[in-house]
Amino acid sequence: MAELKFINANIDENAGIAWLTLSRPEKKNALSIALLAEISSTLRSLAENDKIRCIVTTGAGDSYSSGRDLYDMRGQDNRRRTRGFGGVAEIVDIMRKLPQVTVAKVRGWCLGGGLAMINGHDLVISADTAKFGMPEVIRGSYGATATPSLFHAGIPFKKAFFISLTGRNLTGVEAERVGLVSDVVPEKELDSYVETLAKELASRNGATLENAKIAGYMQKDLPFDMALRADDLVQHRLRYYTNPLNDVEGYLHSQKGGGTVNYVKPEDK
Known about the structure:
Elements: E1 7-12, E2 17-22, H1 33-47, E3 54-59, H2 70-74, H3 87-97, E4 101-106, E5 109-111, H4 113-119, E6 123-127, E7 131-133, H5 146-151, H6 157-166, E8 170-171, H7 172-178, E9 183-185, H8 190-202, H9 206-219, H10 224-239, H11 248-254
Parallel strand pairs: 2-3, 3-4, 4-6, 5-7, 6-9
Antiparallel strand pairs: 1-2, 7-8
Protein backbone atom coordinates (compact mmCIF):
# COMPACT_ATOMS: atom_id res chain seq x y z
CA MET A 1 0.00 0.00 0.00
CA ALA A 2 1.34 3.44 -0.96
CA GLU A 3 2.35 5.89 1.76
CA LEU A 4 -0.68 7.75 3.08
CA LYS A 5 -0.65 11.40 4.08
CA PHE A 6 -4.31 12.15 4.77
CA ILE A 7 -5.54 8.79 6.08
CA ASN A 8 -4.41 6.82 9.11
CA ALA A 9 -4.83 3.14 8.21
CA ASN A 10 -4.66 0.39 10.82
CA ILE A 11 -5.01 -2.90 8.94
CA ASP A 12 -5.42 -5.63 11.58
CA GLU A 13 -5.51 -8.92 9.66
CA ASN A 14 -5.56 -10.98 12.86
CA ALA A 15 -8.78 -9.29 13.98
CA GLY A 16 -10.09 -9.05 10.40
CA ILE A 17 -10.71 -5.29 10.70
CA ALA A 18 -9.37 -2.29 8.79
CA TRP A 19 -9.64 1.02 10.67
CA LEU A 20 -9.43 4.04 8.35
CA THR A 21 -9.30 7.53 9.85
CA LEU A 22 -9.68 10.64 7.72
CA SER A 23 -6.83 12.79 8.96
CA ARG A 24 -7.25 16.50 8.25
CA PRO A 25 -8.55 17.51 11.69
CA GLU A 26 -7.49 21.14 11.22
CA LYS A 27 -9.96 21.26 8.28
CA LYS A 28 -12.67 19.16 9.97
CA ASN A 29 -11.51 16.39 7.61
CA ALA A 30 -12.64 18.27 4.52
CA LEU A 31 -12.45 15.98 1.49
CA SER A 32 -9.67 17.24 -0.74
CA ILE A 33 -8.80 15.64 -4.07
CA ALA A 34 -5.67 14.14 -2.52
CA LEU A 35 -7.57 12.69 0.44
CA LEU A 36 -10.23 11.18 -1.84
CA ALA A 37 -7.52 9.61 -4.00
CA GLU A 38 -6.01 7.99 -0.90
CA ILE A 39 -9.38 6.62 0.22
CA SER A 40 -10.06 5.20 -3.24
CA SER A 41 -6.65 3.54 -3.47
CA THR A 42 -6.89 2.11 0.05
CA LEU A 43 -10.38 0.69 -0.46
CA ARG A 44 -9.41 -0.93 -3.77
CA SER A 45 -6.44 -2.56 -2.05
CA LEU A 46 -8.60 -3.83 0.82
CA ALA A 47 -11.12 -5.33 -1.61
CA GLU A 48 -8.46 -7.91 -2.50
CA ASN A 49 -7.61 -8.75 1.11
CA ASP A 50 -9.54 -11.87 2.13
CA LYS A 51 -8.33 -11.54 5.73
CA ILE A 52 -10.27 -8.30 6.23
CA ARG A 53 -14.01 -8.70 6.78
CA CYS A 54 -14.95 -5.33 8.25
CA ILE A 55 -13.83 -1.81 7.30
CA VAL A 56 -14.49 1.05 9.72
CA THR A 57 -14.09 4.69 8.71
CA THR A 58 -14.07 7.67 11.04
CA GLY A 59 -12.62 11.16 11.29
CA ALA A 60 -9.71 12.46 13.32
CA GLY A 61 -10.48 15.14 15.89
CA ASP A 62 -14.01 16.26 16.63
CA SER A 63 -15.73 15.57 13.28
CA TYR A 64 -16.30 12.89 10.67
CA SER A 65 -16.09 15.27 7.71
CA SER A 66 -17.25 18.79 6.91
CA GLY A 67 -17.69 17.75 3.25
CA ARG A 68 -15.74 18.60 0.11
CA ASP A 69 -12.85 21.04 0.44
CA LEU A 70 -14.37 24.08 -1.29
CA TYR A 71 -11.03 25.83 -1.81
CA ASP A 72 -9.78 22.65 -3.45
CA MET A 73 -12.88 22.41 -5.64
CA ARG A 74 -12.61 26.06 -6.72
CA GLY A 75 -9.32 25.26 -8.38
CA GLN A 76 -10.92 22.64 -10.63
CA ASP A 77 -12.28 23.23 -14.13
CA ASN A 78 -15.93 22.52 -13.33
CA ARG A 79 -17.09 23.19 -16.87
CA ARG A 80 -15.65 19.92 -18.08
CA ARG A 81 -17.28 16.61 -17.24
CA THR A 82 -14.92 13.85 -16.19
CA ARG A 83 -15.15 10.32 -17.52
CA GLY A 84 -16.54 7.89 -14.97
CA PHE A 85 -17.50 8.91 -11.43
CA GLY A 86 -14.45 10.36 -9.70
CA GLY A 87 -14.43 12.12 -6.32
CA VAL A 88 -16.92 11.15 -3.63
CA ALA A 89 -19.13 9.34 -6.15
CA GLU A 90 -16.29 6.93 -6.86
CA ILE A 91 -15.84 6.23 -3.15
CA VAL A 92 -19.55 5.47 -2.71
CA ASP A 93 -19.50 3.16 -5.74
CA ILE A 94 -16.43 1.29 -4.48
CA MET A 95 -17.92 0.84 -0.99
CA ARG A 96 -21.15 -0.63 -2.30
CA LYS A 97 -19.15 -3.23 -4.24
CA LEU A 98 -16.67 -4.17 -1.51
CA PRO A 99 -16.93 -7.76 -0.23
CA GLN A 100 -16.35 -6.48 3.31
CA VAL A 101 -18.95 -4.91 5.58
CA THR A 102 -18.34 -1.16 5.89
CA VAL A 103 -19.14 0.80 9.05
CA ALA A 104 -19.01 4.59 9.45
CA LYS A 105 -18.33 5.82 12.99
CA VAL A 106 -19.63 9.38 13.15
CA ARG A 107 -19.09 12.10 15.70
CA GLY A 108 -19.31 15.84 15.17
CA TRP A 109 -19.97 17.28 11.73
CA CYS A 110 -20.97 15.04 8.81
CA LEU A 111 -21.92 17.35 5.96
CA GLY A 112 -22.27 17.35 2.18
CA GLY A 113 -19.67 15.00 0.75
CA GLY A 114 -19.25 13.47 4.20
CA LEU A 115 -22.96 12.65 4.23
CA ALA A 116 -22.62 11.09 0.77
CA MET A 117 -19.74 8.96 2.03
CA ILE A 118 -21.62 7.54 4.99
CA ASN A 119 -24.55 6.75 2.68
CA GLY A 120 -22.14 4.50 0.80
CA HIS A 121 -21.50 2.45 3.95
CA ASP A 122 -23.51 -0.61 4.92
CA LEU A 123 -23.83 0.50 8.55
CA VAL A 124 -23.59 3.92 10.21
CA ILE A 125 -23.17 4.32 13.97
CA SER A 126 -23.61 7.86 15.22
CA ALA A 127 -22.96 9.74 18.41
CA ASP A 128 -26.12 11.39 19.69
CA THR A 129 -24.40 14.76 19.40
CA ALA A 130 -23.35 14.37 15.73
CA LYS A 131 -24.67 16.80 13.11
CA PHE A 132 -25.77 15.63 9.65
CA GLY A 133 -26.68 17.94 6.81
CA MET A 134 -26.42 19.20 3.24
CA PRO A 135 -25.49 22.88 3.34
CA GLU A 136 -24.85 23.01 -0.43
CA VAL A 137 -28.19 24.65 -1.19
CA ILE A 138 -27.14 27.66 0.90
CA ARG A 139 -24.19 28.41 -1.40
CA GLY A 140 -26.14 27.74 -4.60
CA SER A 141 -25.56 24.04 -5.25
CA TYR A 142 -27.99 21.16 -4.90
CA GLY A 143 -25.41 18.71 -3.50
CA ALA A 144 -24.04 16.54 -6.30
CA THR A 145 -23.44 12.93 -5.19
CA ALA A 146 -24.95 13.70 -1.78
CA THR A 147 -28.38 13.90 -3.47
CA PRO A 148 -28.49 10.48 -5.18
CA SER A 149 -26.87 8.84 -2.16
CA LEU A 150 -29.47 10.47 0.11
CA PHE A 151 -32.50 9.57 -1.99
CA HIS A 152 -31.26 5.98 -2.27
CA ALA A 153 -30.67 5.74 1.48
CA GLY A 154 -34.20 4.41 2.05
CA ILE A 155 -35.39 7.31 4.20
CA PRO A 156 -38.84 8.84 3.58
CA PHE A 157 -38.98 11.03 0.46
CA LYS A 158 -40.22 14.12 2.30
CA LYS A 159 -37.47 13.79 4.92
CA ALA A 160 -34.83 13.52 2.19
CA PHE A 161 -36.13 16.73 0.60
CA PHE A 162 -36.17 18.46 4.00
CA ILE A 163 -32.45 17.71 4.36
CA SER A 164 -31.51 18.69 0.80
CA LEU A 165 -33.69 21.80 0.39
CA THR A 166 -33.39 23.50 3.77
CA GLY A 167 -29.69 23.11 4.53
CA ARG A 168 -30.64 22.44 8.16
CA ASN A 169 -28.80 19.83 10.21
CA LEU A 170 -30.12 16.74 11.96
CA THR A 171 -28.71 15.50 15.26
CA GLY A 172 -27.63 11.89 15.58
CA VAL A 173 -30.89 11.13 17.38
CA GLU A 174 -32.95 12.72 14.59
CA ALA A 175 -30.89 10.96 11.91
CA GLU A 176 -31.54 7.59 13.54
CA ARG A 177 -35.25 8.38 13.82
CA VAL A 178 -35.60 8.85 10.05
CA GLY A 179 -33.33 5.90 9.22
CA LEU A 180 -30.30 7.83 7.98
CA VAL A 181 -28.09 5.97 10.47
CA SER A 182 -28.22 2.39 11.79
CA ASP A 183 -27.90 3.17 15.48
CA VAL A 184 -27.16 6.09 17.78
CA VAL A 185 -25.30 5.96 21.08
CA PRO A 186 -24.08 8.50 23.65
CA GLU A 187 -20.88 10.09 22.38
CA LYS A 188 -18.78 8.74 25.25
CA GLU A 189 -19.84 5.18 24.30
CA LEU A 190 -19.26 5.52 20.55
CA ASP A 191 -15.72 4.10 20.40
CA SER A 192 -16.42 1.03 22.53
CA TYR A 193 -19.73 0.32 20.78
CA VAL A 194 -18.18 0.37 17.31
CA GLU A 195 -15.17 -1.66 18.41
CA THR A 196 -17.46 -4.41 19.73
CA LEU A 197 -19.63 -4.28 16.60
CA ALA A 198 -16.61 -4.46 14.27
CA LYS A 199 -15.21 -7.48 16.12
CA GLU A 200 -18.56 -9.27 15.89
CA LEU A 201 -18.81 -8.60 12.15
CA ALA A 202 -15.20 -9.64 11.55
CA SER A 203 -15.82 -12.97 13.31
CA ARG A 204 -18.39 -13.95 10.66
CA ASN A 205 -17.72 -15.97 7.53
CA GLY A 206 -16.38 -13.71 4.79
CA ALA A 207 -18.37 -15.34 1.99
CA THR A 208 -21.56 -15.03 4.04
CA LEU A 209 -20.99 -11.31 4.60
CA GLU A 210 -20.26 -10.70 0.91
CA ASN A 211 -23.34 -12.58 -0.26
CA ALA A 212 -25.53 -10.81 2.30
CA LYS A 213 -24.41 -7.51 0.75
CA ILE A 214 -25.00 -8.79 -2.77
CA ALA A 215 -28.50 -9.95 -1.82
CA GLY A 216 -29.44 -6.71 -0.10
CA TYR A 217 -28.23 -4.28 -2.76
CA MET A 218 -29.47 -6.44 -5.64
CA GLN A 219 -32.94 -7.05 -4.26
CA LYS A 220 -33.92 -3.76 -2.62
CA ASP A 221 -35.31 -2.14 -5.79
CA LEU A 222 -36.69 -5.26 -7.47
CA PRO A 223 -40.36 -6.28 -7.55
CA PHE A 224 -40.90 -8.90 -4.85
CA ASP A 225 -41.26 -11.84 -7.23
CA MET A 226 -38.00 -10.89 -8.96
CA ALA A 227 -36.33 -10.35 -5.58
CA LEU A 228 -37.20 -13.95 -4.64
CA ARG A 229 -35.70 -15.23 -7.89
CA ALA A 230 -32.55 -13.20 -7.37
CA ASP A 231 -32.38 -14.49 -3.80
CA ASP A 232 -32.44 -18.08 -5.06
CA LEU A 233 -29.40 -17.34 -7.24
CA VAL A 234 -27.50 -15.73 -4.36
CA GLN A 235 -28.26 -18.72 -2.12
CA HIS A 236 -26.72 -21.08 -4.68
CA ARG A 237 -23.73 -18.76 -5.10
CA LEU A 238 -23.10 -18.80 -1.35
CA ARG A 239 -23.00 -22.60 -1.22
CA TYR A 240 -19.99 -22.64 -3.54
CA TYR A 241 -18.04 -20.89 -0.76
CA THR A 242 -19.44 -22.16 2.53
CA ASN A 243 -22.00 -24.59 3.95
CA PRO A 244 -24.48 -22.87 6.30
CA LEU A 245 -25.53 -26.26 7.69
CA ASN A 246 -22.15 -27.82 8.49
CA ASP A 247 -22.36 -27.09 12.24
CA VAL A 248 -26.04 -27.24 13.16
CA GLU A 249 -25.31 -28.80 16.55
CA GLY A 250 -22.78 -26.16 17.56
CA TYR A 251 -25.00 -23.31 16.39
CA LEU A 252 -28.13 -24.56 18.18
CA HIS A 253 -26.16 -25.20 21.38
CA SER A 254 -24.89 -21.61 21.29
CA GLN A 255 -28.45 -20.28 21.13
CA LYS A 256 -29.72 -22.01 24.27
CA GLY A 257 -31.20 -19.58 26.72
CA GLY A 258 -31.74 -16.97 24.03
CA GLY A 259 -30.02 -15.70 20.92
CA THR A 260 -26.36 -14.78 21.04
CA VAL A 261 -24.01 -13.03 18.63
CA ASN A 262 -21.01 -14.89 20.00
CA TYR A 263 -21.31 -17.99 17.79
CA VAL A 264 -18.49 -18.44 15.28
CA LYS A 265 -18.46 -21.12 12.57
CA PRO A 266 -15.65 -23.66 13.12
CA GLU A 267 -13.82 -22.72 9.90
CA ASP A 268 -13.75 -19.06 10.96
CA LYS A 269 -12.14 -19.59 14.35
